[in-house]
Design brief:
Elements: H1 2-10, H2 14-33, H3 54-68, H4 71-83, H5 97-108, H6 111-122, H7 145-161, H8 166-183, H9 203-206, H10 215-219, H11 249-252, H12 256-273
Helix pairs in contact: 1-2, 1-3, 2-3, 3-4, 3-5, 5-6, 7-8, 7-12, 8-12
Length: about 270
């Protein structure tokens, strides 16, 4: 909400920005005061936090500083960054470590955060040690492989915007996004490009607007009744193999966090090309 408040303020809605920021302050104070992981309270959650809360405390304070310019939030973010060892780690729905490096670098221009980011990203570059598919996609996890690649492409583009390894990071990001758009032989984006997915794991897309929808619909090999235009599917295995199978949530699930980094990359690459 702190980040969103910046967008609404810059686009002429200060009232809503203030409301978002007020809630963001309250939620952060609650989270910082009453420490713990939500799965210890909401016991039946299907998505527990695997990475813990520490990176989120840094991330939240960093964004509150950016939205408010209140130095107490920056002090807290920097203190927690050191206290909790946020000098390495990923960027996903559950991990914010490498994202905090960029937000704090922008706020402080300190080499410490830039160097931590460069060290983390070094393994993600071709030849750096992490897995690449034969056709060139950074492959970090079987569940939503495109999502993880797109998130790191987004990190790279934000870093490049801050003047960090500009040519290398922009080239890496473009390669990853172009893979998803079809450079590897088929698109991973519903409704776009060559041979795109037609059976994403998505209930509303699967079921017809009018008519019957049941497990037979789910298990059929028919294309989804509705085209979920622009959705990024989970993606291939480590050998570029991909099955457009509705029941395979590792490869064909779609989600907001899948498209988030991907959409950010598209916006950045369009801006760079314009």
């Amino acid at each position: 909400m702190a980040a969103a408040s910046i967008v609404f303020r810059e686009n002429g809605d200060p009232g809503y920005a203030d409301e978002l920021l007020s809630h963001a302050r309250d939620l952060y104070e609650f989270a910082d005061t009453y420490r713990g992981e939500y799965q210890n309270v909401v016991h039946d959650t299907p998505y527990p936090s695997f990475g813990g809360m520490n990176d989120e405390l840094v991330w939240g304070a960093a964004w509150l500083h950016r939205a408010t310019q209140d130095g107490s939030y920056l002090s807290k973010a920097e203190s927690y960054y050191d206290q909790y060892g946020i000098s390495s780690g990923g960027f996903s729905w559950d991990e914010k470590q490498s994202g905090t490096m960029l937000v704090l670098h922008k706020a402080t221009n300190k080499d410490k955060y830039k160097n931590d980011l460069i060290g983390y990203m070094a393994r993600k570059m071709p030849g750096g040690g992490d897995t690449y598919t034969p056709k060139g996609m950074l492959w970090l996890n079987e569940w939503g492989s495109c999502r993880h690649s797109a998130n790191h492409a987004f990190l790279a583009l934000v870093a490049a915007e801050q003047g960090i390894n500009v040519a290398q990071y922009r080239g890496f990001a473009a390669q990853q996004i172009n893979y998803m758009l079809g450079d590897a032989g088929r698109s991973m984006v519903v409704g776009f490009g060559n041979n795109p997915p037609v059976r994403p794991h998505h209930r509303a897309a699967t079921c017809p607007v009018d008519g019957h929808c049941d497990w037979n619909t789910y298990n059929s090999w028919d294309a989804n009744a509705n085209v979920l235009q622009g959705a990024l599917v989970g993606g291939p295995d480590a050998h570029d193999n991909y099955s457009d199978d509705r029941s395979n949530f590792h490869t064909n699930e779609v989600a907001v966090d899948y498209n988030a980094g991907f959409q950010g990359c598209l916006a950045a690459l369009i801006k760079i090309a314009s």
